[in-house]
## 1
Amino acid sequence: MTMIDIAKAAGVSLTTVGRVVRKKGYVSREKREAVEEVIRKTGYVPNLVAQGLKSSRTGLIGHLTVLNPNMLYEQISKSINRAAAQRGYQVLTYAADLEDQNTADLLDELIGRRVDGIAITSNPQLDQTLLQKILVQNIPLVMVERTLNVKRTDRIVVSDYRGAYTAVQHIIRHGHRKIAFIGKFADQDVENRRLNGYKAALRAAGIAEDKTLIELRRNYGVEEGSAAAERLLELPSRPTAVFMTSDLFACGFLQACYRRKIRVPDDISLVGYDNTLSMMLSPPITSVSLGLDDLGSDVMELLLSRMNDGLIEGRQVANSTSLIDRGSVRLL
Amino acid sequence: MTMIDIAKAAGVSLTTVGRVVRKKGYVSREKREAVEEVIRKTGYVPNLVAQGLKSSRTGLIGHLTVLNPNMLYEQISKSINRAAAQRGYQVLTYAADLEDQNTADLLDELIGRRVDGIAITSNPQLDQTLLQKILVQNIPLVMVERTLNVKRTDRIVVSDYRGAYTAVQHIIRHGHRKIAFIGKFADQDVENRRLNGYKAALRAAGIAEDKTLIELRRNYGVEEGSAAAERLLELPSRPTAVFMTSDLFACGFLQACYRRKIRVPDDISLVGYDNTLSMMLSPPITSVSLGLDDLGSDVMELLLSRMNDGLIEGRQVANSTSLIDRGSVRLL
DNA sequence: CTGAAAGCGCTAACAC
DNA sequence: GTGTTAGCGCTTTCAG
């Protein structure tokens, strides 16, 4: 079934069928109805591949991401998929989790498929050279969270510093002074920003930094959170509150508490980060939301505007974090 | 940059470039190297859209799914994406969560994009008429979990009955007799199979069914689990164990327990389902794993074999469930 | 308002 | 071994 078949069956030309299918251009009512009738009867579906070749517009957005252990990946994907669908685009998600698929090949496939735009979320393996290839092809590009400063490329950054700061401030306002920090080793800026937010909040409150209260782990993960908790809970003078840079840590921390029959927030106060799992835990934990609901829309809007004008200078959008209070911090 | 440009630059014909790009057919070493050189220099990337049009093979798999509240959706997507990538395919995921996007339109887009195969996972809005369209186009189709018996279409079913049966049997073997059930109203067969598994296990152990111990909820969800727990925990003669058909219910149940300072498994024993969140809870909960790791491979293998021979009769593969014991059932 | 014609970039016979 | 040629199914000027 092709447009030509439809044209023949309806007794019109190929062009007319095209106009009806795309609802564009003038077609007399009779002819239109004739064509529509045939289309309905035959169950004809336009070939988007051919359309894409001819119009060099595929309606596809490439999303390059990395499968991280926390649930962030799914949230981000969901948000982008949804926003894209609402705007008539479909997302092709490439997860660079395997060693055998290197980022360069992935990008080549994206380019080969002639996607109309590319979103890269927190991929650590990026460098200017790789991105250059995309830019040369003039494909709109937006980078999320882990961003490089590249010409004519938009960035969406998460205000991690503020997020951490606000969380710790919240704890301090509840009267806590011995506040522990569980985070990940700073491979990337993200982790540093969170740690800095924590330190700044302490400083602002005139609380001296206590190195024994800072627990840095190799990875995000439940086990890691549990292990960190084991150490912190053994401390001669135990912290009264803990700020963790991932809800996964909070999961693990709570498991350790459960084993020791330590109650939250009665015996210790906790604040998580990501707002992914915190609402599901026992008890639900106050957590920093990264405001990812709008992320997809932001991504798509940046991409779409750049499709219209590829020459605009690189813009930067900050996704603002907010604290979701679930009462897991006790008033001292 | 097209193949013709490369051909000119390398002083060979279009065909020769094609042979080099596709690594197929005879090309003398000199010419090949010349072509490869030019490709490298220019950063040429073959146009997969044109390839797709010409070869009517897009390397795309369409995945039609529905965004459910439990984490199953992500697990399934991940599994399929990964299996597809390993076989050189890319997945286009369509989530029919919005009312405005009806399944028929989604299917049309999949057909329009000329995907090489379609996987439909637990979509409740399916009917023969819709599927007919896919079959007419001769696109390999595999349905997961919620399946219809359609000619020349493969099915992957989850052995929910066995899963539930095994879970309840596990509880019974630990000496429990008052075992509650939290499930979802039976919109679909899935829910019934789980309830039936529960009932059958009780029957096999000679335990009379107690209607007050069966709690059916409108939806899967944390809140729902919590509400169910509130009722069950108020019962004059409280159950000693609870089997729930979703880890989300278990989350909610644990929150209710936490509020009442009821400990698991000391005061009550719990078993979840899905094995999605159970490992993250406090305490970790014994749960039924749906064995989704292999799901993607199964899907792809069924699809690939049908691409080779579209006439094979519909096959059925059963994904076997297994109980992951985390000690949340106490020995009475 | 409608149609004829020229490709989009690539593949696959088929000839040389 | 290598090149010529004819499309895949559609969009888009440009005439009528």
## 2
Amino acid sequence: MARKRFDDSSCSVARALNEVGDWWSLLIVLQAMYGTRRYVDFQQELGIAKNILCDRLARLVDNEVLTKVNVGEHGCRYEYRLTDKGRDLFPVVIALRQWGDKWNPAPDRPPLDLRDRATGRPIGPMNVSDADGKPLTVRDVFLPVSDEDQADERNSG
Amino acid sequence: MARKRFDDSSCSVARALNEVGDWWSLLIVLQAMYGTRRYVDFQQELGIAKNILCDRLARLVDNEVLTKVNVGEHGCRYEYRLTDKGRDLFPVVIALRQWGDKWNPAPDRPPLDLRDRATGRPIGPMNVSDADGKPLTVRDVFLPVSDEDQADERNSG
DNA sequence: CCAATTCGGTTTCATTATGCAACCCTATTT
DNA sequence: AAATAGGGTTGCATAATGAAACCGAATTGG
């Protein structure tokens, strides 16, 4: 049977995973953030099969995470560039990177340290935080019960 | 051929995706953050096939994202609980949720608003930020060239 | 200006992964 | 004691993945 899709799930995490939740898409986006724009460069730097790369690039373009731009002077030569939507995945990628560095560090290599171009200082850790910037864990948050949910509860039990 | 794995990739994003980068794993973790602990509850709330759920739970336990606890009094009854490593995926999940809410909002439903239990106020947006907390975009950061890389460059050209 | 190579794919085929349904054994409830 | 719930496993059909071969339009080298 077909793989399950989450296009119209009520959960925005599920809808997000529907677009970038496979093994390759986020790595392609990451590579694009490093500056890669050409098909052949994605292919070589990621070591991905060409047919899969075509499929993923097309899907990312469909979902407006990337744009495909013809940069050929006489004929066709393409670049894949991040859109605003794609660039907005930066916090997701960095959160994943920091999680990976913390819990699965490379055995003998120091983690990449991204730095602020303006100050030269390393970027800070990603945190979920309250309105004042105080860090919150999963135990510090709750989901307020909406009017709709209350109505649902009355109706069903 | 077998799906490509990234266990020993030098990229921590790739290593992270190796553990939670498939269609279901992060949704299972998210559900666990909502409080779900039992096999049947995961199965019904996610609508996932039972064999796939078994596989993913086992993998998450292997990777120490979840623990499997026998909570049966006379026999066997299990709970799957988040570990510290699993709870540390909170920023990843929230970053994904906020991206999904921003770029693929549900047509007729307001996004879930998680709130700080202490103050009742909504959580803030996830940002990559510098040491002082100032938000940074992907264009504001760079990757300093390490000594090793410089040596590599001299060796290869 | 002709040959070789690069770019950006598509096609074919073998191997895996996913999803559904049926089944199974052990607890718990009625 | 019988029915049901919990936590799976097995078998099968379909879909996704990966490697390699192939292809036509650009581009580069000589």
